[in-house]
Amino acid sequence: MHAPVHSQGPHERPADAGITPQRVPLDRVDEARPSLSRDGAVILTGHRNTSDALVVAAAQVIGDRLRELYPHRERTSRDGGPVHLHADGFDLVVDIGGVPRRRRHPDEDHVLVQCVRPAPHAGDSFALDAYAFVDDLASSDPELSAFLTGSDVDLHGAWVGLRGLPATPRVGRHVEFTRAGRRIVRRTDGAVPIHRDPDTERIRAHLARFGDAVHAAEASLPRFRLGAGDILVLDNYRCWHGRDGHTGSRTVRILTARSSDAD
Questions:
Q1: How much is the average pLDDT of 141-159?
Q2: Contact 232/125 with Cβ under 8 angstroms?
Q3: Phi, psi of 217 (to 5 degrees)
Q4: Which domains does the chain have, with CATH numbers?
Q5: Closest C-alpha to 102, from 114, 115, 87, 92
Q6: Would the keyword Lipid metabolism be found if you checked this record's keyword annotation (predicted)?
Q7: What number of other Cβ atoms are within 10 A of residue 75's Cβ?
Q8: What is the SS3 assignment for 68?
Q9: Which of 75, 126, 210, 233 has the smallest number of Cβ neighbours within 10 A?
Q10: pLDDT band for position 15 (50/70/90)?
Q11: Beta partners for 43?
């Protein structure tokens, strides 16, 4: 029998969990890979403000470990609200001429975000080292830590009904390891209890508690601003990212990728 879910006060993020990515200019791009490995995020500056630049940047940073690129996404938000901390990942396969084609992967391990047009007011970005965050939970909230590492959920169940989303539930845990030993720390608003899970109420309570803990960490994270053409590169297994609300229009291009480290 599981212990009840106790309510606690707001979580404080670990002192070293906030990330201010190093800015690496194009003429020193060889510094980007070790910076990404060290911090979980890096900003590339000086690239052309084009979708092609994202592909070039992926090759520069990931190198010969690059295995798959997924289609670009361009997003414009107008007077947008905040985007909370999250990791990318979506299970999307489409049929093109009778051939299944994968457009998104639930375990994309790299994300590249290029600022096409920054918002005129606000819209700053923030990032958190999820490894440090969940390591801190082991002592600050062992019950929530045990849930993230030990309980299966339907990772995309909240999005059932979207075109292209598989009908088969994507079952997994928030903290898992790849076959090669890389740790994945997931953060998605799509997670729900598995259908008819006898622990449904406990799972729902922990999912809400996890969301509250993540949102509480956002206010104290350092902010950084992406200028036009800047490319934010993220280790999607390790680093969650988000942005503040803004006024006016803001446009970004997004490219997700998988490397051999995702095996």
A1: 96
A2: yes
A3: -75, -20
A4: 18-257 (3.60.130.10)
A5: 92
A6: no
A7: 12
A8: strand
A9: 75
A10: low
A11: 23, 232
